[in-house]
Structure formats: structure tokens, C-alpha cells
């Protein structure tokens, strides 16, 4: 049965759809010996698909894996890094980091910490990172200065970034200190370095940024120990269902 090449690559755990598209553009993928094109349709049972010269096995789809990682500071949310920095895959054991197509769903910048989902479910990754879906993400953010009510109102209502207003957000003060303020922020979008850029624009640069939850999936449940920095755990069935429920609600 024919399907778009990037979808096949994601379903067979090679890469997320977005990563697969980039691999195709970089001329790393061939179909029956010819360079592939983004959007090209293939039949995995008939066509020979190679990535970096190596044929991929499409006879048996790998088991789907869903992980929650507590990303430490300094680690990049990519599968590999040209600069040689530690990636989120480097935090996983060899049996998970190699050959299964596990990749991060979205990103946290290197300076930020906290909840990050890793999976080899390319369809789920594509859906969760699509702009039309609005899975909430919760952050604890330490910023410089005393944040007043006017700033909070502006942040909640949306701020212009790159000529487009951010969506409404939940922003509340957790703790006020003489020269700093700790906030809890819930976003339903994820533009590049959004919280840091908005905070800077409003005059309160970020000192620390930590994601505590993705939807209802939390690093620490009430009465339970927190997932240690750099550690991961498998998502429970009800947590995986909750991710799909956000997609279905927006469809």
C-alpha cells in the first residue's frame, strides 16, 4: 500500500516526519536507487528504501515506545549535534538510543530543563507538534525583577512576536522575592524560545526555566517522588491515551 515517504520513515521508527523531510532534502534517502523527493509515494512492501546507503527493514514495524525525560541544563533536544554537545538520546541506554528511531517530541532549549517526551511514534509526534493542536505545557520560571499586575495582564493577553501575537496564556505569581519573581506559566503553543523572548520584551529576563508538565503528564505527582534530572521513565497507558485525547479534541 502506497504512502508518503516521510510518513513511512516515521512509522518505521527512522525519524519523525519533520526529521525525515530534512533527511530527504539532504539527499540521504533513495528509492530503488534514485534520490527521493519530499512527498513522494512509496510502497514499503515493493520499493527498496535506503537511508545513508543502508536499506531499512519494513517487514516488521518496531514496537512503539513512549518515554518521559527530565532534561538537564546543557543538553540539546536533538538526536545528534554537529557541535558535539550532549543530546537527549545520550541520556538513554544503548538499547533505546540506537536503531529504534526514538526522538524528542518538540524541544526545550539547551539552557532550559524539565519534561520532554521521547518516542518512535512518528504519527503522534507529527500531530502533537502541528500548530493546530494545543496541548498545554506548564513551566516554573524564575525571572529578574518584581513583576507587576500590568506586566502579568500583558503576558496573559498575548504579546507581539515576529509580527504575530502570542496566544493567551495562564501566568500566575508563585513567589515574590526582593529582586526576582517565580512564575507558573501554562502555554498552548510553542514558538522558538517563546517564554524567554516574551519575558525579555516585558523587561524581566529569564533566570531559570523548568517545564513541569506536558498536558496531564507531570514530572512529579502529588505524594510521589520526582523524576530525577537526567532520568527517564516509560509513560503509562493512561498517559499515552491522554496525549491522543488532545489530538482528537482538536480534530
How would you characterize this protein structure?
It contains seven helices and 17 strands. It has 251 residues and is α+β, with helices and mostly antiparallel strands. A hairpin with an 8-residue loop joins β8 and β9 (113-119). 31% of the residues are buried.
Unreliable residue stretches: none
Q: Helix/strand/pairing class, anyone?
A: alpha+beta
Give the N-to-C terminal Cα separation. Answer: 25 Å
Number of discrete helical segments:
7
Give a brief rundown of this model.
The protein has 251 residues and is an alpha+beta fold.
Primary descriptors:
single chain; 251 residues; alpha+beta; nine-stranded mixed beta sheet; 17 strands
Furnish the topology, listing elements before pairings.
Layout: E1 3-4, H1 5-11, H2 17-25, E2 29-31, E3 34-35, E4 41-42, E5 49-51, E6 54-55, E7 66-71, H3 94-97, E8 103-104, E9 113-119, H4 122-128, E10 137-144, H5 149-157, E11 160-161, E12 164-165, E13 170-176, E14 180-187, H6 194-201, E15 206-214, E16 217-218, E17 232-234, H7 237-250
Parallel strand pairs: 9-15
Antiparallel strand pairs: 1-4, 2-3, 2-5, 5-6, 7-9, 7-17, 8-9, 10-14, 10-15, 11-12, 13-14, 15-16
Amino acid at each position: 500500500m502506497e504512502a508518503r515517504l516521510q510518513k513511512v520513515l516515521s512509522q518505521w521508527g527512522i525519524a519523525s516526519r519533520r526529521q525525515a523531510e530534512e533527511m530527504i532534502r539532504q539527499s540521504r534517502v533513495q528509492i530503488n536507487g534514485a534520490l527521493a523527493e519530499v512527498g513522494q509515494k512509496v510502497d514499503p512492501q515493493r520499493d527498496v528504501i535506503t537511508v545513508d546507503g543502508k536499506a531499512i527493514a519494513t517487514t516488521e514495524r518496531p514496537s512503539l515506545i513512549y518515554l518521559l525525560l527530565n532534561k538537564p541544563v546543557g543538553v540539546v533536544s536533538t538526536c545528534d549535534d554537529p557541535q558535539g554537545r550532549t543530546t537527549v538520546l545520550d541520556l538513554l541506554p544503548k538499547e533505546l538510543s540506537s536503531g529504534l528511531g526514538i526522538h524528542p517530541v518538540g524541544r526545550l532549549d539547551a539552557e532550559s530543563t524539565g519534561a520532554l517526551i521521547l518516542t518512535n511514534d512518528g504519527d503522534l509526534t507529527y500531530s502533537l507538534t502541528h500548530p493546530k493542536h494545543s496541548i498545554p505545557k506548564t513551566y516554573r520560571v524564575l525571572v529578574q525583577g518584581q513583576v507587576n499586575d500590568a506586566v502579568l495582564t500583558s503576558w496573559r493577553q498575548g504579546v507581539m512576536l515576529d509580527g504575530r501575537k502570542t496566544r493567551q496564556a495562564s501566568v500566575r505569581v508563585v513567589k515574590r522575592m526582593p529582586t526576582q519573581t517565580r512564575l507558573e506559566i501554562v502555554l498552548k503553543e510553542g514558538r522558538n524560545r517563546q517564554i524567554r523572548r516574551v519575558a525579555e520584551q516585558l523587561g524581566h529576563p529569564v533566570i531559570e526555566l523548568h517545564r513541569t508538565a506536558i498536558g496531564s503528564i507531570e514530572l512529579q505527582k502529588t505524594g510521589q517522588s520526582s523524576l530525577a534530572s537526567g532520568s527517564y521513565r516509560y509513560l503509562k497507558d493512561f498517559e499515552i491515551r491522554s496525549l491522543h485525547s488532545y489530538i482528537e479534541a482538536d480534530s
